[in-house]
Design brief:
The complex is a heterotrimer of chains A (781), B (292) and C (162). By secondary structure, chain A is an alpha+beta fold. Chain A is built from 20 helices and 30 strands. Helix content of chain A is 28%, strand content 26%. The chains are: A alpha+beta (781), B alpha+beta (292), C alpha+beta (162). Chains A and C meet through α1 and α18 of A and α2, α3, α4 and α5 of C. The structure holds flavin-adenine dinucleotide (FAD) and FE2/S2 (inorganic) cluster (2 copies).
């Protein structure tokens, strides 16, 4: 294959529709006779349901139906355990999954109690007020530390609020600590927020009684899973259900769930009423009805040698999983594993307890727990650097895994059930590049003293991370050359802006010698491709991309074979380029791919055994384990020492995600990730009160960064191909977001010279108000 | 997030609007820019049964001034037209500082000064500006008109002196004074957010550079805009001195009782109110033509 | 309460529409679901995200904070009207494509409407001015950098145009 497109900043195929307002999103689906749905959601976090009276709502003009859990009958079922826990010896896991409509108890604010079907969303909302709900309010479990010993239980049958308890270790931490030069122990608090895509969730369900067929438009990241699951629930065959995830306005994790209550309830209503129905989540609902990622409390200690080498780490943490845990252990295991970072940690002892609380459900959101672990590790190293009087960048360098140590085994189990093993990497050059780009030495030697003398508070920071990406199980792709010469590619993943329409087209275009714009990609339509898992864990490009590559290679073979028959020459004498196959050196002797495709489906003449008609192939790829990407962020931040507001003066990202398909798309992914990381570090905080009420459920008060808060970023990369797939690619979807928290903490500490006042920033998110409180507490001390 | 049902009436004249308000009273709301009212209705926090749309009342929009006289701003004047009226910004420079802090261009294209002041959000910039500038609020009902000083107009959280049959029709600002400098500053989480604290300062000096008048108002730190001019009393008659301002800062901090919110603790709000008071007074001094 | 309807007439992208609308229908819903101009998106319905931004008599506004009935007699422009009749992209659209200024594209229509109006008034903006103009449009995907670059490039194209 000649690489004309692979690796090039090819502009996106999907842009035109999006730029002209012609792309179809779920809320754009308009169907004749469609009814609209609103959910009555619990206003309280924890209560027993005594009675729900819907009669007044039913009487309202324009209302077709109102349902509660009781109406669902046999159909009412708790959701499946989407990700079972990995087989870690001695671990405890209590599965309690979400229900379509609350039956006996409500367990978090926003949990649906009833559903109204009406002529318009306006009327449906009017009718919500007509429903009378009688609840016995229970105390709410809100804080995960309190949850452990609370007499109030989110799930009564469990006898406690423990969702899981897992210990993983390598080496012998106790022995390592006994020989340590220095041991540092701290408590860290890391809260992640909500993904808040600009498009909220939505579902449209259309039951065709005559055809006995269900079509569902869904803002999901995993259409195939949703289809298979719903078909089973509805008592239909998989071929009777089609799930379409059309253009989806951002996902970042939470748009993949099995199932959201609305996904279960809408198809049922459509069948029951024999009418199409639509539900579009509004922004207020989004704050409760879409899953979150939230807090962990870590009690961590690090044992060090005098030269700053890590001897071991011990970490005990609590993880808030919310009211249900359909995602098993995914998030806390990510924290546990990713904490180790790019460093040699010979001894590790990590234990976590996941706790049920009366708060919305926690599932992975971009980073998916990795942030929490990276924060702990990076902060520990900063504290160590300060205590040992080693430069923060230098202490990181001393601990990096050397390039000859790969594949590097960490001897514990990752979220994909495989041992945590880093496939490849070369970490030091990444660090060096980042330090050079940020001007580390110059800043510390010249800039900072000069600015300090002017009374300005500027600080620098550098943080490292690794990211397990591209995990299994598998994805598939079908590649077909059509009679018009265009190539059609179908995969089972959904796409939410990652540029799959283009990056996959690049792979195909090179393999088949066509232009990128002649490759049409279909994602997220189960009628086009019905096997696969979904878009998560930075796996789309790695896993589906490899399947696309394999399938196009197979099609290429077929095309060459057929053309060699046509021309009666050897395949070696043929070239595939510009949409045709020609004979080397005799360019006027050619056949167009479209014509070849037609010949591959002959009207006369048999398809002989062992061959298939058409220039088409379906291939699957399942990596043996995840590929590990890595990177370093560095920043210079100025803080106003009076108001504690800050300004990012410079931001640098250097990363290594193996071979790059499209550097333009990759840069976009990094930019977006950093912006979300900045939100997490300094702006976005979910503020709950003691009753489990979210106090800032609006975009006016949950602060997504704007163009003024996100700085210009300088990007660079190195390339260490992954040996785990033939293209050598690693995922990059989450890299931008992961290390921003510790970076902010380190830079702010440096800017305000907080270490001198013995103030340590051990929590995220920070804010001006919080910085004021922390520094004032220090002054009082 | 869809509004509950209501009756919509587009007022054809000021008299029509006032007659409708007299008829429907508290059940009815005027619809001006809609930039506070409609979000509240979408959340169903506000459920007026009648909306009286005053957007067609051209007579309520615009700035009028004559040499040396007060500057009269119609209630329906949109932020955008104030922002692009350079003469107005020269005459009322506090607006030049404050307007860019209000939301975003798209919202400033619709929002009105009258809607803002009638809404009386304590964290909004303009009530503090109006108080600092000693604006006069002109209010009308079908029965007649009256005038209230800004400092008496704001009565509490989202509450003003406007009665159920009345409309705010005009806001009058005093003509600019000589040797006067002004400054508005705020701290908000992001540009366009409501202020965690904001300070408007107006400093007038005499020919010798001594402070002859100092007006100080704060937003975001109480149930209404806070008139903190008395906190600066010690500066009157004094020449510029940075130490003297320190005293004002502690006076300001002592006189406010900030409520705190999800973004800021009361202590932080008190702290930055002081910081901003110092910075704003200093800048206003300097703009009045004196050291600062 | 009796459902009350109002006859309205308005122009969207040069086409005149006459409809009867209920008082409470938001302009955003009216455009999307009555006129089926679904390019205007809705992300929050409280004025913060900017996805619903359209032009009202040439000025960008939030269509989620206006009632459809208020649009009576006005001229509106939406994303569907930006490209030329022959399909040629507006310089701002083209620049967004060239600079990868969109990912999921959900925020994009609002950004396009805000920025076409902005660049008409200020075709020589600094990066900071572009960022200020953009600050009323939230994007969760791009981190804004490529959008900013696209706008600086579009400004150049617009300046160079005869
Ligand atoms: C995203 C966003 C951010 C914002 N940020 C800020 C900010 O930072 N600072 C800020 O100050 N504001 C902010 N606002 C609010 C904005 O400034 C509003 O425009 C303003 O508060 C209200 O003005 P309006 O003309 O839109 O009034 P409307 O919303 O139409 O009306 C507000 C209230 O006043 C009443 N009313 C209106 N006009 C009159 C009148 N003439 N007489 C009597 N009563 C009247 C109405 O009945 C209603 O009760 C923001 C709004 C949004 C959507
Ligand atoms: S939908 Fe109108 S601003 Fe968000
Ligand atoms: S491109 Fe997805 S929100 Fe902007």
């Amino acid at each position: 294959m000649t690489t004309r497109f692979f690796g090039a900043p090819v502009k996106r195929n999907e842009d035109r529709k999006l730029l002209t307002g012609q792309a179809l999103f779920v809320d754009d689906v308009e169907l004749p006779g469609m009814l609209h749905i609103a959910f009555l959601r619990s206003q309280v976090a924890h209560a027993r349901i005594r009675r729900i009276d819907v009669s007044r709502a039913l009487a309202r003009p324009g209302v077709t139906a109102v349902y509660t859990a009781a109406d669902l009958g046999e159909y009412w079922k708790a959701g499946p355990l989407l990700v079972p826990p990995p087989p870690i010896e001695g671990s405890i896991f209590n599965a309690r999954t979400q229900v379509p409509l609350a039956k006996d108890k409500v367990r978090h604010v926003g949990e649906p109690l009833a559903v109204v079907v009406a002529d318009s969303r306006y009327i449906a909302e009017d009718a919500l007020d007509d429903i009378e709900v009688d609840l016995e309010i229970l105390p709410a479990v809100v804080d995960c530390e309190d949850a452990l010993n609370s007499a109030t239980h989110v799930h009564d049958d469990l006898g406690s609020n423990m969702a899981a308890h897992v210990r993983q270790s390598k080496g012998d931490y106790r022995r390592a600590a006994a020989n340590a030069h220095l041991i540092l122990k701290r408590r860290f608090l890391y809260e992640h927020g909500i993904s808040s895509p600009i498009e909220t969730r939505g579902v449209v369900a259309l039951w065709n009684a005559r055809g006995q067929h269900m079509t569902i438009w869904d803002t999901t990241q995993a259409p195939v899973f949703v289809r298979n699951g719903l078909a089973a629930m509805l008592g239909l065959g998989e071929r009777q259900v089609r799930v379409i995830a059309p253009f989806v306005g951002g996902g970042f994790g939470p748009k993949i769930m099995m199932f959201y209550p609305e996904e279960v309830v809408l198809p049922w209503i459509s069948m029951r009423l024999n009418r199409p129905v639509k539900w579009i989540e509004d922004r207020l609902e989004h704050f409760f009805a879409t899953t979150h990622e939230r807090g962990q409390i870590h009690d961590a200690e690090i044992a060090l040698a005098a030269d700053g080498r890590i001897l071991g780490i011990k970490d005990v943490f609590m993880h808030d999983t919310g009211a249900y845990d359909p995602y098993g252990l995914t998030v806390p295991i990510n924290s546990q594993c990713t904490l180790l970072g790019p460093y040699v940690v010979p001894n590790y002892d990590s234990t976590f307890t996941a706790l049920f609380t009366n708060l919305p459900i926690v599932t992975p959101y971009r980073g998916a727990g990795r942030q929490h672990g990276v924060f702990v590790m990076e902060r520990l190293l900063d504290l160590a650097a300060h205590a040992l009087k080693v430069d923060p960048a230098e202490i990181r360098r001393r601990n990096l895994i050397p390039p000859d140590a790969f594949p590097y085994s960490n001897e514990i189990i990752f979220q994909d059930f495989q041992p945590l093993e880093y496939d490849s990497g070369n970490y030091e050059p990444v660090l060096d590049k980042a330090l050079e780009l940020i001007g580390y030495d110059h800043f510390i030697r010249d800039e900072q003293p000069r600015l300090r003398a002017e009374g300005r508070c500027v600080g620098i920071a550098v943080a490292c991370y690794v990211e397990g990406t591209g995990i299994g199980p598998y994805e598939g792709a079908k590649v077909q050359i059509q009679a018009n010469g265009k190539v059609n590619v179908a995969t089972g993943i959904g796409t939410q802006g990652q540029g799959h329409f283009t990056s996959f087209a690049q792979i195909v275009a090179d393999e088949l010698g066509v232009d990128v714009t002649d490759v049409d990609i279909v994602t997220g339509d189960t009628d086009q491709f019905s096997w696969g898992a979904g878009t998560f864990a930075s796996r789309g490009a790695v896993v589906a991309g490899t399947a696309v590559s394999e399938a196009s290679r197979a099609v290429r073979k077929k095309a060459l074979k057929l053309a060699s028959d046509v021309f009666e020459c050897s395949e070696d004498d043929l070239v595939l380029a510009d949409g045709k196959v020609s004979i080397t050196g005799i360019s006027q002797k050619f056949i167009r791919l479209g014509d070849l495709a037609q010949r591959a489906n002959p009207m006369r003449g048999a398809v002989s055994p062992g061959t298939e008609p058409g220039l088409e192939s379906t291939q699957y790829f399942g990596p043996p384990m995840g590929a590990t990407a890595n990177g370093v962020h560095a920043a210079i931040i100025e803080v106003d020492p009076q108001t504690f507001d800050l300004k990012i003066l410079k931001y640098v990202v250097v990363h290594d995600c193996g071979t790059v398909i499209n550097p333009m798309i990759l840069a976009g992914q990094i930019h977006g990730g950093v912006a979300q990381g900045i939100g997490n570090a300094f702006y976005e905080k979910l503020s709950f009160d003691e009753q489990g009420q979210l106090l800032n459920a609006s975009l006016a008060d949950y602060l997504l960064p704007t163009a003024l808060e996100v700085p210009r970023m300088e990007l660079d990369h190195t390339t260490t191909p992954s040996p785990l797939n033939p293209l050598g690619i690693k995922g990059a979807g989450e890299a931008g977001a992961i290390p921003v928290g510790p970076l902010f903490a380190q830079a702010i500490e440096d800017a305000l010279d907080l270490k001198r006042n013995e103030v340590e920033l051990l929590e995220i998110p920070l804010s001006p108000s919080r910085l004021f409180e922390l520094t004032r507490m220090a002054r009082v001390r | 997030m869809k509004p509950a049902p209501f009756k919509y009436i587009a007022a054809s004249s000021l008299d029509h609007a006032l007659a409708l308000k007299a008829e429907h009273g508290d059940e009815a709301r005027f619809l001006a820019g809609g930039q506070s009212l409609i979000p509240a209705m979408n959340f169903r926090l506000a459920r007026p049964s009648v909306l009286i749309d005053i957007n067609g009342l051209g007579e309520l929009a615009g700035v009028e001034r004559s040499e040396g006289a007060e500057i009269r701003v119609g209630a329906l004047t949109r932020y955008r037209s104030l922002e692009s009226d350079s003469r107005f910004l020269t005459d009322c420079p506090l607006f030049a500082d404050a307007l860019p802090h209000i939301a975003h261009p798209q919202i400033r294209n619709r929002g009105t000064i009258g809607g803002n002041l009638s809404h009386a959000d304590p964290a909004s910039e303009l009530p503090a500006v109006a108080v600092a500038m000693q604006a006069r609020m002109r209010i009308k009902s079908a029965k007649g008109g009256r005038e209230v000083a800004a400092s008496e107009f704001f009565q509490g959280l989202l509450t003003t002196d406007i009665r159920s049959d009345e409309m705010l029709v005009e806001i009058a600002f005093p003509a600019p004074r000589a040797r006067t400098g002004t400054c508005f500053m705020e701290v908000a989480r992001r540009r366009g957010d409501f202020a965690l604290a904001g300070v408007a300062a107006v400093v007038t000096t005499d020919a010798k550079g001594r402070c002859s008048q100092l007006r100080l108002a704060l937003c975001g730190v109480g149930e209404t805009a806070v008139d903190a001019s008395t906190a600066a009393a010690s500066l009157i008659g004094q020449p510029w001195a940075s130490e003297a301002i320190e005293t004002v800062v502690s006076e300001v901090q002592a006189m406010i009782d900030p409520p705190g919110n999800v973004h800021a603790s009361p202590d932080y709000q008190r702290h930055i109110a002081g910081v901003l008071a110092q910075r704003a007074i200093t800048a206003a001094y300097s703009r009045a033509g004196h050291a600062g | 309460m009796q459902v009350e309807r109002h006859d309205i007439e308005l122009s969207v992208n040069g086409t005149i529409y006459r409809r009867a609308v209920e008082s409470r229908i938001l302009l955003s819903d009216f455009l999307r679901h009555d006129l089926e101009l679904a390019g205007t998106h809705v992300g929050c319905e409280h004025g913060v995200c900017g996805a619903c931004t359209i032009l009202l008599d040439g000025a960008p506004i939030r269509s989620c904070l206006m009632l459809a009935v208020q649009a009576n007699g006005h001229e509106l422009s939406t994303v569907e009207g930006l490209a030329g009749r022959d399909g040629e992209l507006h310089p701002v659209q083209q620049a967004m494509h060239d600079h990868h200024g969109l990912q999921c594209g959900y925020c994009t229509p609002g950004i396009l409407m805000t920025m076409t109006a902005f660049l008409k008034q200020n075709s020589e903006p600094s990066e900071h001015e572009v960022r200020e103009a953009l600050s009323g449009n939230l994007c969760r995907c791009t981190g804004y950098q490529n959008v900013v670059d696209a706008m600086l490039a579009a400004a150049q194209t617009i300046r160079a145009a005869p």
